[in-house]
Amino acid sequence: MHGRVKVKSTAQQEEEKRKEREKKLKVYLSARDAVFSKKSNGVLDEEALQLTQQLLSSNPDFATLWNFRREILLHLETVKEEEEMQKLYELELLFTESCLKVNPKSYGSWHHRGWVSSRLPRPDWPRELSLCDRCLSVDERNFHCWDYRRFVVKASGVPVSQELRFTDRLIGSNFSNYSSWHYRSTLLPLLQPGTPSPCRKPAHVSPTASPQTHGHRVCEEQLLKEYELVQNAFFTDPNDQSAWFYYRWLLGRAEREEMISCVYVSREGERVTVAFSKLVNAPAEGLVLVLDGQPQQVEWRSVHPLFRHSPVWLCELPPGSISDINNEHNLTVHWTEKHTHRDCALYTGRLESWCRDSATDQELFRSELSIEKTSVLQSELQSCGQLLELEPQNKWCLLTTILLMRALDPLGHERETLAHFQTLKEVDPMRSSYYSDLCSKFMIENTILKMEYAEVRVFSLSDKNLSTLCHLDQLLLVTHINLSSNQLLKLPPQFAMLHCLKVLEADNNAIENLEGLYQLPKLEDVSLRNNHISKLSTLEPLVSCPKLIRLDLRGNPITKTANIQAELAQLLPSVTDLLI
Amino acid sequence: MVSDQQNLLFTYYRSLNCYKGTQIKDVVIKPDAPNSLILDKHADYIAAYGSKKDDYEYTLSEYLRMSGIYWGLTVMDLMGQLDRMNQEEIIDFIKSCQHDCGGISASTGHDPHLLYTLSAVQILTLYDRVKAIDVDKVVDYVRGLQQEDGSFAGDKWGEIDTRFSFCAVATLALLGRLDAVDVGKAVEFVLSCMNFDGGFGCRPGSESHAGQIYCCTGFLSITGQLHQVNADLLGWWLCERQLPSGGLNGRPEKLPDVCYSWWVLAALKIIGRIHWIDKAKLRAFILACQDEETGGFADRPGDMVDPFHTLFGVAGLSLLGDEQIKPVNPVFCMPEDVLQRIGLHPDLLT
Lengths: 580, 350
Ligand SMILES: [Zn+2]
Fold this sequence. Notes:
The complex is a heterodimer.
Chain A: H1 11-40, H2 46-58, H3 63-79, H4 82-102, H5 107-119, H6 125-138, H7 143-156, H8 160-173, H9 178-187, H10 211-214, H11 220-236, H12 241-251, E1 260-266, E2 271-280, E3 287-291, E4 294-296, E5 301-302, E6 310-316, E7 329-335, E8 340-346, E9 352-356, H13 374-390, H14 395-408, H15 414-427, H16 432-454, E10 458-460, E11 480-482, E12 503-505, E13 525-527, E14 550-552, H17 564-571, E15 577-579
Helix pairs in contact in A: 1-2, 2-3, 2-4, 4-5, 5-7, 6-7, 8-9, 9-12, 11-12, 11-13, 12-14, 13-14, 14-15, 15-16
Chain B: H1 2-18, H2 39-49, H3 56-60, H4 65-78, H5 87-97, H6 114-126, H7 135-144, H8 162-174, H9 183-191, H10 210-222, H11 231-239, H12 258-270, H13 279-288, E1 297-298, E2 305-306, H14 307-319, E3 328-329, E4 334-335, H15 336-341
Antiparallel strand pairs in B: 1-2, 3-4
The structure holds zinc ion.
Zinc ion binds at residues 257-259, 299, 309 of chain B.
């Protein structure tokens, strides 16, 4: 089905081909029918082995035939001596090898070979490993063969260090070998450090660990060696994506600790809002809320009905439990499963209170290398800078430079980062939306950092070319947000995490979806001038915001609809100040 | 440090002299390649495909017949032409392929397998005829293939692959019986196949591959666990599959292909990042893979067409918003109206 080029042929050629195919069909059908008849009659003999061999040689994807061979072999095991079986299975290996030579990507042949290897009375694993070597030297990307290699390595206990040297060799002969880089990423976390140098996290790899979730359990020492290898790769061929993908993984951050990052309590709303360091399904997490020493029966709900998993959850307290302003209250949320909790005190006379770790405390958006090793990142950045001078249009180098700058000092490098993003969009226009979204994310991170250094609850992101919103869980305490003059298309459901929001300005965007303006208990003032709101139904989420009194829709298509004033008054009766 | 950097520069200058550098593997779309959608021809091609049953090539593909029928029927339904296919004949065929163990085979006389069990259930769902087979037995069959570690074997011979995890939960979800297996463990296994690039492979440790990524994101959608995906990282890898021709490949340094265009595009849709590729260029690539003489789509411009690439070409154009085609669901690769009818709404990230 793949890679068969269509060739034009004459009527005579067609006729010849047709006749030939007819002949082949006859031979094929008679063999198939003979096999099927043996199969349905339970005839498990060596003639059946021959027939299936004949058919599989030309059609190795015919899975039922491999199954039948296994049935026959299992039967022969019960009647033959071990020595005879050893010979039979070795023939079977020769046969699969010949099938793999014709079709090295047949799932059936590879699976059968693995099965045979496991049944062989005296397996010869080194031979299997050398088969993989040969096969990978023909096609270094054949993932079936790589998977078979991993099977052989596991079955015969080949040490991790030996496999790592194998990838050294492959990468050394050709850097452009994504499969080898991938293999390294799975091997590194398994590697025991030679000296007891401090690893960043204990080598506590569970059987189901994957490099994605546990990748950064790589020793710093090994990490630095990897940087060097990757640099060699991209200085040899700056356009080869494999090494760059790998490098981005090396630069990635470790998992965040699982914790409650913020507890917010509102006296008037008699409501508790909790932010977690990751997405959770709170009702299933065994949370316990204790108010003044008494565990409370509460019902956790996510900020938006679309989310079963969310970083922000809330619950109502029993009526009257905290409403008296003359009382002080102490609240604790326990996340028992994770052995962590967070306290929050609501003092006399206060309307609200919170307790949290800020993004700056947690160093959320920076590198996790130890302080003395950040000098290494600095020199990585220098190398990228040199490469960029030689190859100013190289998108991989541009993007990596941005990532290094962010790992080192996100605010200090903001201006250069923006310039590099601009270049990226020009040299790689097919992915400009990706770069826009990534740049938006970084600008939001920077603004969060600046806001936290200034300890304010006002968040201004106007005129930053934002194409998307993210990190909204970090904005739980924000009361005023300005998103005007960006390229936003929507206020996504995640926007409903801004539980303290009173004033929203989002003028001069291309917003046509307001799903996220949902059950925001304090929202009073919404300005959406010059957007793309055209339907009354778009405004429906606002019905769930009880305090909304001011709404500015000037410059939206909806203002041109007949009778709009009356319809809006009916939909949003609380709005007294409507601008259209 | 300085000497290290001099070394690197030396490497670079040497490479300019003797190292050719990576040639991007891609195809060239000829100026006379098709650039408009010829739906009628595709429908004729599919309608005629099943009629040449004594053809050699057709016979050779018997081992995947059930999936072949699913591809043909689904693309016909997406084009609004399902009624041209012989429903009764197909239902009888499916019935003849269900085995005592409950599993369904690609064709009569073949052994049952999860791949063809899913295809059969998809076909029956298209026709709203699920009750034509023994549903309880299908559920038992799927349940029996789940392993200790949560993974699924494709059949009793024990091949493990995340494709089969997808087949298992997709089959059960279509039958409304997802609770029949240990979903928590199944999820744990699929997550253990997540790689450094955010993608997924066949088994733990296997390299990322667009087909597997489709299966695993589809699996996580059906099981309500998409929040476990690193969507920004995976989305970057996926949008880097787009080549200058506009087509998408399935892994780095590979050629573009219509079927990979579907796996990548559907996965991007599932994780809410479909806008990260250039839609107009992809559309042009897919259209160029049509055969104007015979109808149908090939893997690449100028190759032979087949029903598999015809489905994924048409489904890809549907995801790109072509209004001549019914909206397709990115998780099940079935018309949205069919899933609506059975009340199935798999999650998508926003
Ligand atoms: Zn293909």
